[in-house]
Amino acid sequence: MSRVGSAPITVPSGVEVSIDGAKVTVKGSRGTLERELPGGITARTDDDSLIVERPDDTSQSKSYHGLSRSLIQNMVVGVTEGFVKELQIQGVGYRAIAKGTNKLELALGYSHPVNIEAPDGIEFDVPAQTQIFVKGIDKQLVGQVAADIRKWRKPEPYKGKGIRYAGERVIRKAGKAAK
Length: 179
Hints:
The radius of gyration is 21 Å and the shape is elongated. The protein has helices spanning 3-6, 59-80, 139-151, and strands at 9-10, 16-20, 23-27, 32-36, 42-46, 49-53, 83-90, 95-98, 103-107, 114-117, 122-128, 131-136, 162-165. The protein is an alpha+beta fold. Helix content is 22%, strand content 36%.
C-alpha cells in the first residue's frame, strides 16, 4: 500500500470537492481547479475527507496512486492558501519592475528590457527591485512561470549574477589564477 496514496485528504470548510468519474474539481475561496486522474485511479468523499483508491497492485497503479493523492492535496491547498515562489535578482543594474499585477519588466544586462506576461491565474508582486514573488493557486503553473523567469538569466558560478530562487545556494568557482 502506498504510504502517500493511502493517507486521506482533509477537506477544510469552505472547500467544495466534486468527483465526476476520473475528473476531480475543487472549488475554494481563491478559485477553481480541475484535474483528470490518470490510469484508473478513483477518488471518493467520506464525510470531511477525500480518499484516493487504485484499481490493482501493478507498479503503474501504485505510482499513479501516490501521484494522484499529492495532486489533489495540492489542489485543496491551492484554493485555500495559494502558492508563492520567491525569486531574487543579483547583479549590478539588474532589476525588476511590475507593470500591474500580470506584467513584469526585467533589466538583465541585455540591450533591451525583457517583458514577461503572466498566464491566467498567476500574479507578480515586486516589493523591491531585486525581489519577485510569483503567486497563484496552481502549484505546477507557479513553479513553471518561476522557472521560465529564472531561465532568462541563470545564476552564474563566477560572480553569482543572475536570477535565483530564494534560499538557492550557488556554488562559486575560483577565477583564473595569475602567474
